[in-house]
Amino acid sequence: MPSIKVAILGFGTVGEGVYRILQEKRDEIKKSTGFTVEVEIILVKDKNKKRMPIKGIQITDNFQDILNNPEIDIVFEAIVGEEPAYTYLSDTIEKGCHIITANKKMFAEHGPALMKHAEFRNVQIGYEATVAGGVPIIRTVTNLLSGDQVKRIQGILNGTSNFILTKMRKEGSSFKEALFEAQRKGFAEADPSDDVSGMDAFRKLMILSSLAFGEQPDWDEVPVVGIDHLPSNEITDAAKEDYRYRHVADIWLDEKGEPQGTVGPALIGANHPFFNIDGVDNAVIVETEYLGSLTVVGPGAGMYPTGSAMIADLIHIIRQQEAVLIPN
Ligand SMILES: NC(=O)c1ccc[n+]([C@@H]2O[C@H](COP(=O)([O-])OP(=O)(O)OC[C@H]3O[C@@H](n4cnc5c(N)ncnc54)[C@H](OP(=O)(O)O)[C@@H]3O)[C@@H](O)[C@H]2O)c1
Predict the structure, then answer these.
(1) HEC states along 82-132?
(2) Domain Homoserine dehydrogenase catalytic spans what residues (predicted)?
(3) Distant-in-sequence, close-in-space partners of 57: CB < 8 Å, separation ≥ 6
(4) Phi/psi at 97 (nearest 5 deg)?
């Protein structure tokens, strides 16, 4: 039976989601690709941490074990932060393996360099999970680009901010109360500063800019405002006038054909596609030359939505590479 061997870097929310889906959908993946996908090795930081039971798979805290394993075809990356993730993925590409990442912080900064490196080494990169979790925005924009030109992308790209704004509007909660509730429900990180300051949405916007426009604006020139200074009475007053605050990341091409972006709270009227996007959902509007405007909505985070975006990347890579993936 032909099989593809994969490694998973990181076994937290996302890494575990990838592992679970690979086990639960083993037969479906085989039916759809013709390959059995085997998890060969998992990289973690702390081998002694208590985790779900995993049988017959090597758990390591040494990345060299993955790099030195000649059987690995594809590496999933779901660790946190720019380094060592960037170095690990550069080494993985150099070795000739395909990579699939969820790490938006790393990919916003180093995605362009990784893409060039991957092209040079003739391997593929899946990064659907870096933007809007389970919403298939990377695939959608990629498909649109084959016969059309993207002019603008607007997104609610941070589910935590949207949850907080929704709670402040609906229940009159203060920012602190709504943030506490987001943390209690597991939507916000223990350190939520990247979410509420707008930096998380900014990084996702930069990934979309690279994809849609082939370049990112100068990061210093993009105004980034979070939701952390928005008074709750402004949110409830706006709601009385049938307006809602959404945290919107916006990127477009100016008259010179250069990308310009903004990230911050915006007042949205009842006719706008973002008006009804409540809670932790994400939404993205893509405007193109020929299609006009298209809105995609869905869960922006979580074990299964994010894991399933990475599995969709896996299936895409297998189908594209079927001729060159040598069955083990
Ligand atoms: N959570 C989501 O819904 C979501 C959605 C989209 C994208 N993402 C992105 O996906 C990535 C993973 O997120 P997560 O929520 O799964 O994080 P998490 O639950 O904190 O898990 C992180 C995992 O990475 C491992 N790790 C951290 N640093 C490492 C290092 N230096 N070497 C080896 N392993 C290391 C940790 O090992 P230990 O288990 O030993 O601590 C842990 O297993 C992040 O980049 C995040 O931004 C997350």
Answers:
(1) CCCHHHHHHHHHHHCCEEEECCHHHHHHHHHHHHHHHHHHCCCEECHHHCC
(2) 136-315
(3) 39, 40, 41, 42
(4) -95, 150
Tokens at 298, concatenated: 């869905």
Cβ-contact 277, 298 below 8 angstroms: no
Domain 3-132+305-321, classified CATH 3.40.190.150, yes or no: no
To test the ligand 1 pocket, which listed residue (64, 80, 202) has its Cβ within 8 A of the most ligand atoms?
A: 80
Q: What is the CA radius of gyration of the chain?
A: 20
> Distance between CA 103 and CA 294 in Å, rounded?
26
pLDDT at 190: 78
pLDDT score of 2: 85
Q: Give the C-alpha separation, 53 to 84, whole Å.
A: 26
| Both tokens assigned to 211 | 């994809």
What is the domain partition of the chain in residue ranges?
A: 3-132+305-321, 137-300
Task: Find out whether the beta carbon of 127 lies less than 6 Å from any atom of ligand 1.
Answer: no
- Supply the pLDDT for residue 6: 98
- Given a cut of 70, the residues of the chain with pLDDT beneath it are 1, 322-328
Strand order in the sheet with 74-77: 58-60, 36-43, 3-9, 74-77, 98-101, 125-126
What is the rounded distance in angstroms from the CA atom of residue 60 to the CA atom of residue 230?
Answer: 44
301 lines ligand 1 (CB under 6 A): yes
DSSP string, 241-277: TTEEEEEEEEEEE-TTS-EEEEEEEEEEETTSTTTT-
> Of the candidates 172, 169, 170, 196, which has an alpha carbon nearest to the alpha carbon of residue 183?
196
Q: Which CATH fold would you assign to the domain 137-300?
A: Dihydrodipicolinate Reductase; domain 2 (3.30.360)
Contact 54, 22 (CB under 8 A): no
Q: Any catalytic annotation for residue 204?
A: yes
